[in-house]
């Protein structure tokens, strides 16, 4: 992300290693700064930004095995759109040469069962197409679910109201005997 900031700088791109280094140090999170404290205190005279960048990635980034574990373990969809979850999985899989078919399976496992059922009927199905269709399915599904839950809660209110007279009759019957 910093690389694009340097490229888009106005009036001209930032290319000086020392300037990049200073900008990066000023914008490091406290945790990252502590992790690379030794590099910050003695950056060296040649390529300080490149050295800092390498060390931040090495010390603060996930190892390859951690990335693979996270990719295989899966994540919850939560409030995200399926296409957002797919982008996360795709980004994690890029550096590991994961086959598209495996990426698709890993993605499908994280979707609700009703969405999986619908997607199973689409042939041929690519991961990209699956994420787009899943987005559309879930745009419609929550409205249907909330309508059903409103209907069922209205029915339960009616049931509890109709049960009140019965409860009153039972109460009167037990108190009068």
UniProtKB/TrEMBL annotation:
Gene transcribed to yield this protein: AVEN_209501_1
Listed InterPro entries: DUF7041 (IPR055469)
Protein name per its UniProtKB record: DUF7041 domain-containing protein
Lineage, uppermost ranks: Eukaryota, Metazoa, Ecdysozoa, Arthropoda, Chelicerata
Naturally occurring in which organism (per UniProt): Trichonephila clavata (Joro spider)
Domain DUF7041: 1-72
